[in-house]
Amino acid sequence: MNIVNIDVTLRDGGYRNGFNFPLSYALKHARLTVEAGFDWVEIAYRKGSLLPIPDLGLTGRGDDEFIAAVAREIGAQRVAMILHPKNITEHDLPAMYAAGARLVRIILPAKGYERGLEYIRQAKEIGFGVGVNFARISQWPGRDIVEVATAATDAGAEFVYLADSNGSLSPVDTTDLTTLTKSVTGGPVGLHAHNNLGLALANAISAVAAGATWMDSSIQGMGKGPGNLIAEQWLAHLDRTDPEASTRLHLGPALELADLLLATIPEGTPSLPLPDLVLGRYDLPVEHRKELLGGDHREGIATARTLATVR
User: Fold this and answer.
1) pTM of structure
2) Measured CA angle at 18 (ends 303, 51), to 5 deg
3) How far apart are CA 209 and CA 13, in angstroms?
4) How high is the pLDDT of residue 242?
5) Is residue 58 within 8 Å of 66, Cβ to Cβ?
6) Which residues of the chain have pLDDT under 50?
7) Strands (DSSP E) along the chain, which ranges?
8) Nearest CA-CA partner of 264 in 27, 7, 15, 63
């Protein structure tokens, strides 16, 4: 199999530290990621994530100077960005490309996605590799997946990512969603897994078995809440099970990078915040996390159950 691997530590891991990675660390991280065999390093959001975050750091802004610095370090052909259409203007994509980014992922909602289609077309015209992310895919009805995937593909998206933002998918769910999406687009499908229920690796394996060929992971799993698919585990799995991957992927630099992350970025230490486990169980987004804090765990579960019922 030929899996395209994207490291998302600098971007998704930013939810843990306010996106405040020092530039020196970000450059070392990108270099070791490439040495480990990743195809792309997704270095930042462009102009912020879904909701406003005070004092947004380096990898939450995705400034041109940062893009250019990473491109000088690892080559433009490895530099990826992600964005929400609501946060940018028609000037951003040309500036990002000129600075050195060559892959862009555009996050599309299930409703009101038309503006994103315009940016897909613009990015294609500029020369980007272009994909789309369907956030909180666990809450998308099948008809919405069919509609938006068709529209995005018609607009020029080259691959569709299923983002398990709530960390609530099971391997069976992942198989079904991957199969459905592939049947609609006929093109590559990717998975962005979160580990709320400890199923990120199992879901990744299921997605690939169902035909997914793009995969996100992060060093030490550093990402929102309990984090993402753990890159070191994923690379070890591919190295053991896929002879082709074993010639391209190198676990040593990934482990060296894990040591560097843990020594440099305190928030990189793996954790499983108990409210995030409950969010995964009840398929709730991170915005509800504050409602599960402050009481005892039984009260939190009762609150989550109520929120899931009225969703």
Assistant:
1) 0.96
2) 55
3) 27
4) 87
5) yes
6) none
7) 4-7, 40-45, 79-83, 103-108, 129-134, 159-163, 189-192, 214-217
8) 27
Residue showing tokens 């897994």: 193
Placement of tokens 């462009």 in the chain: 46
pLDDT digits (tens, 9 = 90+) for 218-254: 999 999 999 999 999 999 999 999 888 878 999 999 9
Measuring CA to CA, which residue among 196, 224, 216 is closest to residue 16? Answer: 224
Query: What is the torsion angle, in degrees rounded to the nearest 10, for the CA atoms of residue 154, residue 157, residue 158 and residue 162?
Result: -110
- State the residue for tokens 């895919």: 137
In three-state secondary structure terms, 194 is: strand
**Looking at residue 108, what is its pLDDT?**
98
Which tokens sit at 64?
A: 């041109």
CA distance 44 to 42: 6
Going by their DSSP bridges, the two strands 159-163 and 79-83 should be labelled as unpaired
What pLDDT was estimated at residue 246?
Answer: 79
Q: Which pLDDT score is estimated for 171? A: 98
**Nearest partner of 209 among 158, 175, 159, judged by Cα:** 175
**Closest by Cα among 238, 189, 196 to 214:** 189
Gap between the Cα atoms of 308 and 190, Å rounded: 27
**Predicted local distance difference test score (pLDDT) of residue 7:** 98
